[in-house]
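#struct-help
A.M.: can someone run this one for me? Single chain, 190 residues.
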Amino acid sequence: MTQSQERPFGVTIIAVLAIIDGILLVFGGLSFLAFGTFFATVPIENIVINQQQQPELQLQQQQQQQLQEVQNAAELQALTQFFASIGLVIGGIVLAVGIGYLVVSYGLLKGKGWAWTIAVVLSIIAIIVQIISAITTANALLSYDINASWAGIISHIIGIAINGVIIYYLFRPHVKAFFGKTRPSTTFQT
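D.P.: on it. C-alpha cells below:
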C-alpha cells in the first residue's frame, strides 16, 4: 500500500466485521476451554460417595451395589474425560481462529497484502462451509422441523451471499491496488 492511497470504505467494513467475528470467537473459544477445564476437574469419587449416602439408590445386595458403583464411576469418568477433551480441543481451535481474525482485521485496516490473501481464503472457506451446512440442513427438512430447517437454509444462503460480495469486492481494481495486489501493466516492444 502506498501512503497516499486512502483505504476504501468497504475494506473498513470488512475489517470491522472481522473484528466482531474475532471478538465473538475469542469469547466462544474461552467458553469452550472453561467447559473443558470444568469437566477435566470434576471429582468423580465425590459423586459416587454422594450417591452411596442416598438411601433410595442403594441396592439390596452388597456385591451388586459395589459392582454397579464401579461400573457407573468408570462410565462417568470416561464421559467427563470425553467432554473435557472435546471442550479443550474445540476451545483451542476457536480461540486460535478468533485471534487470527483479529490479526487479519489489523492487516486489512493497514492495507497489508497478506491480509487480502487471507480474507479471500477465509471467504472461500466460509462459502464452502455454508454450502455443506445448507445441504445438511436441507436433509433435515425431510425428517425434522420444517420451519426451523427453512430458517437455517435461508441463513446459509445469506452467509454465502455476504461472502460472495466480500470476494467480489476484494477483487475490485481499486481495492487490490490498496493492498498492493495489482501488477504493473507491461508493454511489449518489438
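A.M.: thanks! The radius of gyration is 26 Å.
D.P.: also worth noting: Confidence is low (pLDDT under 50) at residues 186-190.
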